[in-house]
Amino acid sequence: MAAIPSPVVAVKINEWYKHIKRFNVKEAEILREEVRKEIDAMEEDEQAVLYFQLMEFRHQLMLDYVQPSKKPLEPSEYLKAVEGQGKKMSGFLEYYFNFFQGMYEFRMGEFVKAIMFYRRAEKRLEQVADELEKAEFYYKMSEVFYHMKQTHMSMYYVTLAYDTYKAYKTHSIYMVREINCLTVVAGNYMDLETRDKALTCFSLALEKAEALGNKHIIFRQLYNIGICYQGLNQITKAVSYFHQSILEGEPIGEKLFQVYYELIRIHLNQKELIEGREFYEKAKEQLALHKDDLFLDMLKVLENLFFKSANLSEVLACLDKLESPRGLPYMEDLALEAARFYTEKGRVDESVKMYEKMIYAQKQIQRGDCLYEFL
C-alpha cells in the first residue's frame, strides 16, 4: 500500500484546526482520529509530524476550555516531542508552537509568560497567509494586554482583529469574535474611566448576541452592562442588569459567583446586610460546585470586613493571597474598598494601610512591563 502524501495530511490538519477554533468538539474529535491514522500511514515528513503534535496540544486546550479538568493540562505531554528532540521547526511551525504555548500560559493565568510566547510568535507572523488566522493572533494579544492593564497596547491589537472579523461577519463564528473584540474594547474603556463609551460597546455586543441567540454571550453582556452602570454609580440599573444576567444564566448552568460577588458589594455598601449575606451564601454555594480559589479569597476579604471584626492583619492576610497576575486587579479594587470602609468607621491608621496596599497592587501590575523579552 502506497504511503499517504504528507500535503494531503497537512490539509486535513488544517481542517481539524478550523473546527478546533470554532469549538466544534464532535467534528474536531472525528478529524483528530482520522489524522492519527493517516499520520501512521504517511510518507516520512518531519514537519508534518511536528504540525500534528502541535495540533494535538491545541485540541487539548480546546477540550480543557469546554470541559475544565481538575488536573491541570501539562504542556510537556504534548510539546516535549516538538521541543525536546532537537528538531528544526520551519517558521510556520515556530509560529504555532509559540502561539499555542502562549494560549496555554494565558489559560493558566501566567500573563507575562503568555506575552513572551506571543511576542515570539509575532516574529513569525509573516509566515501566516490567512487573514483570519492573523486576526485570531491579534485578538489573543489584545486579550492578554487587557488583563495586564496595558490598555493602549490592547486597543492597538483589538482594532486589527476587529476590522478583519467585521469583514467576515456573515459567518456566525466571526460575529462571535466581533462581539469578543467589542468586549475587550469596552473593558479598555472601563480602565480608561470612559464608561459611557464602554456602555455603548457592551450594548452593541448584547444586541449582536441577541441576534445570534447565543444565551451564554447574552448572560455575559448583561453582566458587563451591570458592571458598567455600577461604575457610573447608577446602582438601580446595575442591580437590574445583574438580576437579568442571573435569570439568563441560571437555566443554562452558567457560573454565577461573579454576579453574586458584585451584588454582595452593592448591598453591603448600602448597609443592606441581610441582602448582602444572602448573596454571600449563594456565592459560597456556587464556589463549592465550581471551585475557584481566587474568588474564595475575595469573599474572605468581604467576610472579614463586613461580617467579622475587620481586623487589619486578617484583612491584609486575605489580600496577600490575591498576589498573582490574575488576582492583582482584584487586590487593588478590594484594598480601595477596605480603605473606604475603615475611613467611614473613623479608623484612619487602618485606612492608610489599605491605601498603601492599593498603591502596591498598582505598582505590581505596572511591573509587568519590565518583564517582557527584549530580544
TrEMBL record:
It comes from the Bacteria. InterPro entries: TPR-like_helical_dom_sf (IPR011990), TPR_rpt (IPR019734). This is Aspartate phosphatase.
